[in-house]
């Protein structure tokens, strides 16, 4: 067996070529200081559609982002071909810090969080008053998700020509949730669209609701340019609607009035990821009362300090009842 010394000059030593060239490996990544700022409008099968300097640009996620996800509403840095021309492709090289994140899980036992949208400041829960019947527990779950994410909730009740809104609104009056009521005729003549648009003005609003509640019809009324999108029907047997939106889509409201993000219809809204303390943070009249609670208090047990807080007159008992109803949705299965 031939052995070579440390400083051999033999010319018959075989050197394996470097397949990757002679450039030394480095962990330094380009800073992309010349990257353009953009907003993600939709993500579909790896293709990221962004609004960059007033143009719609199609991009892919750059390798340096690794496993970091890109979702609708993200503020991103984009490089490459930014012309927006057909068959061109840019790269998303950076995702800026998010101001808010709306999450959900498939169910309450699923530890995997799914980010719905980023950087929104309002969650509009769209619910039909009939055809299909309203699902208060789903509304409660959406409210919990909104409070957890730091979003302002808004109830948008549709099809008021089929059923009155008052019985459902009574459940949410103690929460102080803002609401807008519309009928199909109102949407057709534009009156309801103006009322809803006024509640969305200047904000980034996510629309959430189960299939068949009229969410796509509402979007078509809010953003007339989107009226080529189809609307679905409600199955007479199951009471469920057909999905007409397949992926989240951000749309600008007219006259720079803000943004509305349409999302696919949901049949469940898991809350496995929710921290109850963040939900209580949305109740400033109740939160100080938790100081005397035992450790890991569920806020619905005999020695919860909130009972005494309310008894001393610091908050309305109906507010505590509503809080506990919302927190209880994390322990219950969803139903109609």
The structural class is: alpha/beta
Order of helices and strands: EEEEEEEEHEHEHHEHEEHHH
Quick one: how many beta strands?
13
The parts where pLDDT drops under 50 for at least 5 residues are 227-244
Q: Count the helices. How many?
A: 8
| Terminal Cα span | 79 Å
Helix amount, in percent? 10-25%
- How would you write the strand order of the largest sheet? 10-9-8-11-13-12
Give average pLDDT, whole number: 85
Bin the strand percentage.
Answer: 15-25%
| C-alpha geometry | globular
**Biggest β-sheet strands, sense, barrel:** 6 strands, mixed
Question: Gyration radius, to the nearest Å?
Answer: 26 Å
Oligomer: single chain
Helix and strand topology:
Elements: E1 36-44, E2 47-52, E3 55-61, E4 75-80, E5 90-95, E6 101-104, E7 114-118, E8 122-128, H1 136-149, E9 152-158, H2 166-169, E10 178-181, H3 184-189, H4 191-200, E11 203-208, H5 215-222, E12 249-252, E13 258-262, H6 276-280, H7 305-311, H8 317-328
Parallel strand pairs: 3-5, 8-9, 8-11, 9-10, 11-13
Antiparallel strand pairs: 1-2, 1-4, 2-3, 4-5, 6-7, 12-13
Characterise the protein shown here:
With 336 residues, this protein is an alpha/beta fold. It is built from 8 helices and 13 strands. The chain has helices spanning 136-149, 166-169, 184-189, 191-200, 215-222, 276-280, 305-311, 317-328, and strands spanning 36-44, 47-52, 55-61, 75-80, 90-95, 101-104, 114-118, 122-128, 152-158, 178-181, 203-208, 249-252, 258-262. It has a 6-stranded mixed β-sheet. The protein has a 5-stranded mixed barrel with strand order 1-2-3-5-4. Strands 6-7 form a two-stranded antiparallel ribbon. The chain is globular, with a radius of gyration of 26 Å. Residues 227-244 have low confidence and may be disordered.
